[in-house]
Amino acid sequence: MTGRFSYLTRILGPDGVMYVRLIGVNRPEISRDRGGMLLDRVAAGGIKGLVFDYRRMLYTHDTFQIGTLAGRVASRLPAGFPVAYVLARHHAGFVVTLMRTLKAKGIVTEPFATHRPAIAWVNRQIALDRGQSPDHQMDPALHARSA
After folding, report:
1. I need a labelling partner for 13 at 20 to 30 A (CA). Which of 47, 96, 117, 137 fits?
2. Are 85 and 109 in contact (CB under 8 A)?
């Protein structure tokens, strides 16, 4: 993998799930700048949940930088906001630190090995938040197989 970095975003479905696939080497200054732009988009409205797909990303953050990033993300999202992380094994330390900070701030978060169950989980969280039946959103067995 080269030292380059890029990301792709999509807004999925009528529920407004933002799917973000990160590709390449992600440095702390990129997380700060691009992450801020993504959070600005969430704050603009219409986004009800996030899926970050890290499978094609390498990170250079130390523990302090990860904690700082997580604090910034948590401060910009409302309590109960669903955030799913799609990760490979080598991302575990990075994502666990993010998830702990987000959960402490009331953000609902979950790790996944692939993107489809992550998207389904976020859609289910959105449906539950609206008080709707999530049965049409997701097969519960998908989540059990994903993490």
Report:
1. 96
2. yes
CA dist 69 and 32 (Å) reads 7
pLDDT at 1: 53
Q: Does the model's pTM come out above 0.70? A: yes
Q: Is the dihedral of CA 131, 134, 135, 136 positive or negative?
A: positive
Residue 112 backbone zone (phi > 0: left; psi -120 to 50: alpha; other: beta): beta
Are 66 and 34 within 8 A, CB to CB?
no
For the purposes of burial, counting CB atoms within 10 Å of the CB of 142, is it exposed (0-12), middle (13-18) or buried (19 or more)? middle
pLDDT, one tens digit per residue, over 43-99 is 899 999 999 998 988 888 888 888 888 888 888 999 999 999 999 888 888 788 888
Which backbone phi and psi does 120 adopt, to 5 degrees?
-60, -40
Question: How many Å apart are CA 14 and CA 107, to the nearest integer?
Answer: 21
